[in-house]
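Run log // design_07
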């Protein structure tokens, strides 16, 4: 049975579970339970701290793990990446009090820095002599409490830092998103290949929509240039003479502009629909 780790809480938990459920897996966490079994797909899901997941996967205790790139980098493990996921985007930034004179990242090297990511911080500065105050959470309050002069913390919107009277210094030290890790021996398993294919299909479907429309035959070449599709559009004859029906996948981000262009060209009955999943 395939063993897969999922985050037990935080911003990565719900998107990971929702993605797997959309792909046909029974991955919902039950109250007070640390694991659940999907007998139909032959998978046991374990709900663990995101920061611990890379360790379990590297040691081969679990086959796969959904976590963040920042946690992988912090644990300094050598797991393989099965897939990059399109959620959980964040950045690790340095911040100082608003009244501080610090303007550049290099100036932090002589300060007391509070962080939950000491390994990433040390590797970024390539300096093991820095005064790092390692904390598990609520890093932004450390300056106000007097145990640090600056912080290096995960930033999503920056609101928490502003509320703590801090401002960001320089560029992010590290950028992160959700990933699926695999143990070195796991990616050849058939169940892993199926899971990867399902996840890729769902992510592809989320990025695309299906557009269908009726097109005058004399305008078909121009319409196809607007909607070239993955390979090429599907084109069929309509009952009405000199009219074609066209169906094509289009990027969701471009879909409304494409509909405008088709309408201006002279196409009719333009319909945009959602794609649940896909295989390319």
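design_07 sequence
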């Amino acid at each position: 049975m395939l063993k897969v780790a999922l985050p037990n809480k935080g911003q990565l938990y719900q998107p990971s579970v929702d993605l797997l459920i959309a792909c046909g897996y029974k991955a919902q966490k039950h109250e007070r339970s640390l694991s659940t079994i999907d007998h139909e797909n032959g998978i046991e899901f374990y709900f663990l701290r995101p920061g611990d997941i890379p360790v379990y996967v590297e040691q081969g205790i679990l086959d796969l793990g959904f976590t963040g790139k920042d946690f992988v980098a912090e644990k300094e493990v050598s797991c393989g990446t099965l897939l990059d996921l399109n959620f959980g985007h964040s950045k690790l930034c340095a911040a100082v009090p608003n009244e501080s004179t610090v303007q550049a990242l290099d100036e932090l090297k002589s300060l007391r820095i509070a962080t939950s990511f000491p390994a990433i911080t040390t590797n970024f500065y390539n300096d093991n002599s820095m005064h790092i105050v390692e904390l598990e959470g609520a890093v932004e309050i450390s300056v106000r409490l007097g145990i640090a002069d600056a912080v290096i913390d995960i930033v999503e919107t920056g609101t928490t830092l502003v509320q703590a009277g801090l401002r960001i210094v320089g560029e992010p030290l590290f950028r992160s998103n959700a990933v699926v890790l695999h143990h070195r021996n796991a990616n050849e398993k058939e169940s892993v290949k199926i899971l990867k294919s399902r996840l890729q299909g769902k992510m592809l479907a989320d990025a695309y929509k299906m557009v269908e429309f009726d097109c005058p035959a004399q305008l078909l070449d121009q319409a196809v240039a607007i909607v070239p599709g993955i390979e090429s559009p599907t084109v069929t004859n309509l009952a009405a003479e000199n009219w074609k029906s066209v169906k094509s996948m289009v990027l969701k981000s471009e879909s409304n502009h494409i509909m405008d262009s088709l309408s201006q060209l002279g196409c009719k009955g333009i319909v945009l629909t959602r794609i649940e999943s896909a295989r390319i």
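Residues 207-274 form a domain with the Alpha-Beta Plaits fold (CATH 3.30.70.120).
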